[in-house]
Specification:
nine-stranded mixed β-sheet; 13 helices; globular; signal
Length: about 425
């Protein structure tokens, strides 16, 4: 069977071609970009992995003010007892589902920025996430803060990569755009051999460009399935029929974040010159029955980050990697009638990695001095991203974040 006949028989050649064109960069092309680097043994340039928690993570049940009597009083069915939390100091502790982050805290490689938000909060998921990803709280703009950095540095396509299903606005500039390489592998019917698909993905002289992209995308998806299989079941034989992780929800679903971070690990180990990676975990819109659902999600987050940090410790490039974990907003202080919490405002941001100076930054918002029942932000989110631009990407924050006038937060040590 020729490759052209296989693609036509599959009935999805056009869709694969469109996917390849939309992404602009395949996994194979991304991995081949490592050949342009002198050597992966030196670690290469500093890198940042941006982890977005979609839905609005409940910050009060993530970094818990267990010693504040107002915490238990506001949400008696959702509050953790002081003996349950993983204590950070005499006032704050981590959710019991975050033991890996607690170990990073003990190793002084976890920074927690408290009370992060933006002026004039908007409780809309879409508007709030747009503000975080564009770093423009005053008015809507069409470019993301990473995208503007791509513009300003005339960066190549592989400089910023998202392993999410769609390209986030954060990576969109005016003249430059990040690459979107979906983490989902390829599920093959029993009568199709994975080696055949890989073979059909090889280039043929004189073939149309879109046909070449379509075929190559199949091989990339099989490769991704192998990576995910090895991540979830180390030491087993890769299986091209591996099911893609199910979308995470508040009460169940697969660990999408582990799959995405597995691909980040693969790229960093190979010496790919990407400096910004974007990954995500969804399901944090916990309006009802929050306790069990939120714990499920936080365990996924903790497991994924712990495994990723362990993998980074084993590769030279991992010594230059900083991870930033944020969500579009926190939740209301008081629980609702459905044992959940509604859209709120400020919340914590996690920063972790070998270059991180561990500790607490900013101030925990008061539970007594509220703004219409919401926490008052004590740290502008632009200070976090501005510090990432200056300390990780060696860029001037004021050039890429309009209105930025804050000082840098000292949670990143000099290179």
């Amino acid at each position: 069977m020729t490759r052209r006949r296989f693609l036509l028989a599959s009935g999805v050649a056009g869709g694969a071609a469109l996917a390849a064109g939309a992404a602009g960069l395949s996994l194979a092309e991304l991995l081949r970009s490592a050949d342009r680097e002198p050597s992966p043994t030196s670690g290469g340039p500093d890198k940042v992995v941006l982890v977005t928690l979609y839905g609005g993570n409940d910050g009060l049940n993530t970094v818990i003010p267990y010693a504040d009597p107002g915490y238990a009083a506001a949400r008696p069915e959702l509050a953790y007892q002081p003996e349950e939390v993983l204590r950070l100091d005499d006032a704050l502790g981590l959710n019991p589902m975050l033991p890996g982050l607690r170990r990073m805290w003990d190793d002084k490689r976890l920074a927690i920025v408290l009370g992060v938000g933006y002026p004039r909060p908007d409780r809309s998921h879409f508007r709030s996430m747009d503000i975080w990803q564009t770093a423009s709280p005053a008015e809507p703009v069409t470019t993301g803060w990473v995208g503007r950095w791509l513009d300003g540095t005339n960066a190549p396509l592989e400089a910023a990569v998202s392993f999410e299903p769609v390209l986030p606005p954060m990576l969109v500039g005016r003249s430059r755009i990040g690459a979107c390489v979906s983490y989902r592998g390829l599920s093959l019917p029993s009568w199709v051999d994975a080696d055949l698909v890989t073979a059909l993905g090889r280039a043929e002289p004189g073939e149309p460009e879109m046909q070449r992209h379509a075929a190559a995308s199949y091989g990339d998806l099989v490769t991704m399935a192998h990576v995910l299989q090895e991540t979830e079941h180390p030491g087993t034989t890769p299986d091209a029929t591996l099911d893609a992780p199910a979308a995470a929800t508040g009460t169940g679903g697969g660990n999408e974040l582990t799959a995405q971070l597995a691909l980040v690990t693969r790229c960093i180990e190979a010496g790919v010159p990407t400096q910004v990676y974007s990954v995500s975990l969804g399901g944090f819109d916990t309006h009802a029955e929050e306790l069990s659902g939120h714990e499920f999600l936080l365990k996924q987050l903790d497991d994924a980050l712990t495994n990723f940090v362990a993998a980074m410790a084993r590769t030279p490039g991992g010594q230059n990697v900083t991870v930033v974990v944020y969500s579009e907003f926190g939740r209301r202080v008081r629980a609702n009638a459905s044992d959940g919490t509604d859209h709120g405002t400020a919340g914590p941001v996690f920063v972790l990695g070998p270059r991180v100076v561990g500790g607490l930054y900013g101030e925990q918002p008061s539970l007594l001095d509220l703004d219409d029942g919401d926490l008052k932000a004590s740290t502008d989110f632009r200070a976090v991203f501005g510090t990432v631009l200056a300390s990780v990407l060696q860029a001037d924050p004021a050039r890429y974040i309009e209105g930025y006038g804050g000082s840098l937060l000292p949670f990143i040590s000099p290179s």
